[in-house]
Structure formats: structure tokens, C-alpha cells
Amino acid sequence: LGQVAIHEAEPLEGPDKVELYMLAAAYLKRAYDAGFSQETRANGVFLYGKSLFSSGQEAASRPYLEESHELETEHRADAHWMLAMVDANEESADYLRALAHVSDYLREKDLTPAERDAALLLETRIRFQMKDWTGALASLARHTKTYRPSEAEFWRGRILMAQAAASSPQPAVPGSPLPAAAREKYQLAIAAFAAESAELIAEHAAEA
Fold first, then answer.
1. DSSP string spanning 101-170?
2. Quick one: which of 103, 117, 141, 151 has the fewest CB in 10 Å?
3. Is residue 182 within 8 Å of residue 172, measured between CB atoms?
4. C-alpha dist (Å) from residue 92 to 62, 86, 138, 203
């Protein structure tokens, strides 16, 4: 029943999707507590973790996604992706662990270009939160614009703004000119935000 609920939830959006995943989690919890058979354990544990994650219970999903990962199942890549998302959550962030999971996910050979670009954007966000500006820009340099190019430009602007602020005198002296390096970063950031706007227009036109 849990697997059926997940199958019905996947094409949906919004509250209906979340409700069905919550229903799936309830069914799969009972199955997990009763004990999966040897043949169904790997798939069942993953689906339980996925249903918790997809119904907004991200922290609760972690032990089951980790167990699924340890079982080395066909769902390994999806488990890495969801664990990276859980560990990148700012409320309970473990950025080093999130970075390890997204790196493992990117090593998967069967990712589509869009899946790889989505992971690179997540890696960029994680490195930004770690204040690893150089690493974040390196992640963006590998982004091929098959997934949310506007978001890539947004993060480029954020990173350049952070670099500019870091290279400015602290505390700022009123009336004093910005260092040339900071001024250049701010100019590049403005260009990135302009590019973000252009990409958003293009993305919305493509969806229309």
C-alpha cells in the first residue's frame, strides 16, 4: 500500500502530493516495524525514507535513507541526493556531510545533464554557506545551464557580493573609496544579477 501511495503521489503537486506521501510513510512505518523480508528490505527502507522526506519530515527521514545507503541498493544515488538536501537544511545543517553526499551523487555515471546541474547548484549553495567562495565559483563553472540558469546567475551574484564585502575595509570608513578589487567584484555581481533577470524571462517564456 505504501508503494502504491508513492506511485500515485509522484505526478501530483502541492498539498495532495504531501498528503499521499504522509499516507505512504504511515503504511511503510508499519511494514518497517513488522520487518521487511530479505527480498524487499532494501527497497522498503528506501521508500520509507523517501516518503518521510517527501512529506516534509526531512530530519526523520535521515536514519532510513542512511540505512538504505548502507544496503548499497539501486537507490543509492537518490539516497545521496536526499541526504545532501537534509544535511544542507539551515535549521540542522551539517555542511561537510552535505558536501560529501552531493560529491558522491555527482560521481554517479547515469545522471542526466539537468540532474548534474541541479547537484552543482546545491554544491554551490553548500559552499556559499561554508564561506568557500572560490569553491562555490568552481562549482558554478561546471554548471552547463541545463537546469535553472537563472539560479546559477543568482548564486554568482551572491558570491561576488560576499567576496567584495570581504575585501572591503571593516568597519567601513564613511567617504573612503572602495578598494579596486572590491569595486570590480561589485560590478561583476551587478552583471550577474542582470543576467539572472534575463535568464528568468527566458525560462518563463519557455514554460508559457
1. HHHHHHT-TT--HHHHHHHHHHHHHHHHHTT-HHHHHHHHHT--SSS-HHHHHHHHHHHHHHHHHHTS-S
2. 141
3. no
4. 12, 8, 25, 32
Is residue 127 within a helix (H) or strand (E), and if so which, with residue range?
Answer: helix 113-129
Q: CB–CB of 20/5 below 8 Å?
A: yes
Residue in 143, 66, 63 with CA at minimum distance from that of residue 101? 66
DSSP-derived letter for residue 170 is S
CA nearest 136: which of 192, 198, 197?
192
Query: Rounded CA gap, 54 and 52, in Å?
Result: 6
Q: How far apart are CA 202 and CA 206, in angstroms?
A: 6
* pLDDT tens for the chain, residues 1 to 208: 566 667 666 665 778 778 888 888 888 888 888 888 888 888 889 999 999 999 888 889 999 999 988 887 788 899 999 999 999 987 778 999 999 999 999 999 899 999 999 999 999 999 999 999 999 999 999 999 999 999 999 999 999 999 999 887 776 667 778 888 899 999 999 999 999 999 999 998 988 7
Spatial separation of the C-alpha atoms in residues 118 and 132, rounded to whole Å: 19
Cell numbers at 127, concatenated: 559552499
Q: Look up residue 107 and give its amino acid.
A: R
